[in-house]
Amino acid sequence: MGKKVKKEAEPPPKDVFDPVPIGSKNPATVVLMLHSPEQEVLVKACEAMYKFAEKGDENKATLVELGAVEPLSKLISNEDKAVRINAVMALGVMASHNDVKKLLKKLDVIPSILARLAPAEDTLIHEFASLCLAYLSVEYTSKVQIFELDGLDTLIRLLSSPDPDVKKNSLECIYQLVQDFPSRAAIRELNGIPPLLELLKSEYPVIQQLALKTLATITHDAETRVALRENQGFEQLIEILGNNELNDLHVETLVVVSNCMEDMDTVQLIQQTGGLDKLLQLAETSTLPEVQMNAAKAITNTAQSNENRKILHEQEVEKTLVTLLRVAHDGLRTAACHAIAIMCENLASKDEFRKLAGIQPIVQLLNSENAEVKKAAALALSNLTNANHLNAKALNILQEIHLSTSRKNNFSEAALQRLFDSNLSIKYSFTGCLSSSNKITDGFYDYGKVKPDHKMITLEELYKQKVNQHRPVVFLNAKPPEPALTELPPVENKSPDSPGGRSPTPSKNSNKDKTPSKGKSKGKKEEEKTKEEEEIKIPQEVIVEKKQWLLPYDPIFHSLITNVTKSVLPLPNTKEQVVALAVFVAEKMGGPVERDRLHEFFWELHVSELKFQLQSNVIPIGQIKKGTFYHRALLFKALADRIGINCSLVRGEYNRAWNEVLLADEVPKAPGKLFPPKAYAVDLMHSPGHLMKKNSPEAIQYQCI
Known about the structure:
- This protein is mostly helical and 705 residues long.
- The chain has 36 helices and eight strands.
- Among the domains are: 266-421, Leucine-rich Repeat Variant (Alpha Horseshoe), CATH 1.25.10; 445-480 and 551-703, no CATH class.
């Protein structure tokens, strides 16, 4: 064999450069490199772009001016993996700049970005592609495009990524998407609740908070709340609230809980599992006002239904809310007042707030410098005093504020007006006027005119006073009494084994081993057995405690309402109804009285006789057969309100009172034109049914002596 000769290397082609190291510090040069056909150049150029853009917004703006966005948006789909990675990283960082977002929208880059989120792509690509998408999803049209391209499904899948940055970016994009209703429903349909709940266990607080914010948004939907409950999500939320180490999550968690507690099923669940106790305890003991404020909001949402209010009352929520009123935080006080306002729909809660001395702190909040606090306090005070005369003793404090030049303000006046409008008896006594919108209902009473600093007492207290020489109080009540439960004497318990005085329920084998006495006959035993069974069968629940005072029923007033409903209501127009009602009222209260013979109409004697006949300073309006101006005007207003005639009630001096109605002209003065209605005073004394134009000489004469 011959000797081997070493083959010489072939010389490089003459038309190709040797490798040239790239080292440019000029951004414009690097942007030009993005158009290179060589993969190595593209990789280095994209990497340089990423590092340059990461330094700040000024650099991003420079790259925009140099035209870097368009070539980068194309390179994210390059066949070379290294090019794609660096291009996506650069574009993801740059997308935080508004000008970049605008350009990317014009370039319709979202389909390409979503393609980079495919399972086969590198985790680094997932991270920066989801980051870019998170920046773009802030804008509405981008959100719509992501949704229409099924991007939500892709993003939900990425919530299970092993990389925390991918989770965070995907979650941030989802949070932006669910601000629109279609995405909220899609989250549930795509089974997105379980991965969101799983993220609550993340070791990164930012991910936990984003997950809670997303849940807070989507749980505005009732079906989503059901899905959350079915996935044991509510129990997980309660666990977070019970963990002091997670107190940085309590605010966001309470927002989700607040939404969920609009559903009765959830409220029952939280009560059964002890979660409601945890919630109220957190509200009272937390040192973070933001947490307490959201707990109060959760109570407000829960109390939207009557059944839920009963549950909250059983848990003594009133104590918690009164405690929150005393925390010096405007947002918390506002939230507490809103919760109190809605809880007052429960009558027992109204009384409980009074017993807990919770009314005075609310009145004091009317002097707050914060407008929202004053507004919420006025609302709470209105609801607390509505149809509750004991609570209306808050009126004394409001009157003091109203009479003080230094303490008086718009909100104290608004609160006073709200209280008046919810307690028409008090309003009429202090202001002497009820408008057509103030509808008199059962329980109304005319206490008479009082001074601004007068201390009001309740109708029950007035009723229980001894008969005196003061002006009698006239009340209206057409509500028949409810059937009373029969009072039964307590059952005597002779058994030494029964606790608390109740007869124990005998077991089937209670007499099994007992030997009857020889001296007892069979008949005697049967008699005793029957007697014992009768004692056991007495229903203990019908035993009634001390009776609550109820306003006496006025059957005559009830019959008057029935009569006017049949005779006056069917009349064809308002004017005829007003006239007929005026005649009806006058007939029931002594008939017409000539002006110069008023002194012979002895209504005072009649009313005085009624007081002593009933042995009460409080008399029902139906009993009055001889009534003067203020009796007739009150009856007219009460009956008019029952049949839908709008009228006002105005108190004058010296037992005068009158009603005003608005009536339109029957025939317009000019064809095709409508004129506003005119106000008329209604004569109920001298010429019943006669209508007098407001402020006319005859109307003024009717209203004055």
